[in-house]
Amino acid sequence: MTKLTKTIEFGFYLFLFLLPWQTRLIWHDAFLNHYVWEYGRFSLYGSELVLWFVLLLFMVWLFKNYRFTQFDLGRIWQRLKNPLVLSHWLLVIFLLFAGLSIFWSIDPGLAYYQWFRLLEGAALFSLVLLFHFSLKRIALVWVATAAVQGVFAIEQFFTQYIFANKWLGLAEHFSTLAGSIILQTDTERWLRAYGSLPHPNILAGFLVLALIFLFYLVITAQTRFERFFVLFSLVLILPALFFTFSRSAWIAFILSLVFFGGWLWRRRDYQSLKIFSKFLLITVLIITILMVMFFEPVKTRIVGEQDLEVASIYLRMEFNKQAWEIIQQRPWLGVGTGNYTLGVYDFVNKTWPGYYYQPVHNLFLLIGAELGLVALLIFLAALILLLYLSIRRLDSLAGLTTFLALLSVLVISLFDHYFWTLYFGLIIFWLVLALNLKQSSAAE
After folding, report:
1. Quick one: residue 188, left, alpha or beta (phi over 0 = left, psi -120 to 50 = alpha)?
2. Alpha carbon distances (Å) from 64 to 57, 69, 204
3. Is 334 exposed, middle or buried (0-12, 13-18, 19+ CB in 10 A)?
4. HSE-up of 177 (CA within 13 Å, CB side)?
5. pLDDT digit string (tens) for 29-40?
6. Predicted model pTM
């Protein structure tokens, strides 16, 4: 292994470990109706600098190790019969369409900024696809940084306070502070756990993927240290996920848990099933204890009859109506990538305070509104092909792990937007796509 290869590998794992930390420089602030408009801000994240450094080295590595053949349209056309190649090119076409939307977007500057974010995700996608990274090492780093987030999340929930620190990218939150994400029972207000991320739901999505990687690690663990690492991480990550009180993440985690156990049972892999059963028993025990201790918040979150829960559900339905209204007015080209909240301002209501303008909490409706129905169909076709290819790889533990990661991301995307609108979520989305396509490539 050359020095360049080692540096790229170390830099990539360092980037993954630092990714949850939201230290950033806001180099262009934005306001709408005299209030801060988060989705109009331009930011540079600390982890982004690490990503750029790794991608620069990756370009050098590409030129040293890959032979670039002459462009042959006929050969490409023939290769499109392969679903693996077709899914890749559909993603490329989708990216090009997003770039073209700059020319018809409401705010070209905002569209260009979002497109640059998409290109960062695509560059990371290419890095993971072409460079040799160990899935086990990715899982270890992901779980390790998730365990750190677990410590923060548990401490935040029990103290009901999050301190502000600009160097760590933390904003102050407590249960009576306006703007903090809370859970209101009949008698108490509970601050939901954020970790170092800007919203509990975002932390929850990250932790679900960490737990899926834990499934993989618990089966592949060979040494006593690895088994201790898995158990220690589970004890930190699972309560942290619980304290986010994110319903979509809970659903994704339960589906993954059932699917993983069912896969082992169907394969009659009794040794792995025995190991996983112990993991499952500890998981059920931890969740049961937490549900008994915090029965009222759990009941409130599940039943959804409390005023704040009803208001939240109503608001999400209103966001869906806003998205459909924009799609009806701009069905083929949309309002431009990154321009959704500005589209709500222009086409729905110009009088709301800036913080009220939020993306629709459904990634697919959001893409339809920003890029139009043609781009959405291209995106859906790419995802369907990826799912098809991933299902074909369910004969291996690695294939199952990456498939469950993609499935969880798609389930959460039905109820949230951060895999498209935020740097952190977008990077994770492209990373999960790359891991799935890489596993499918290994089967070819």
Report:
1. beta
2. 11, 14, 40
3. buried
4. 14
5. 999 998 889 999
6. 0.95
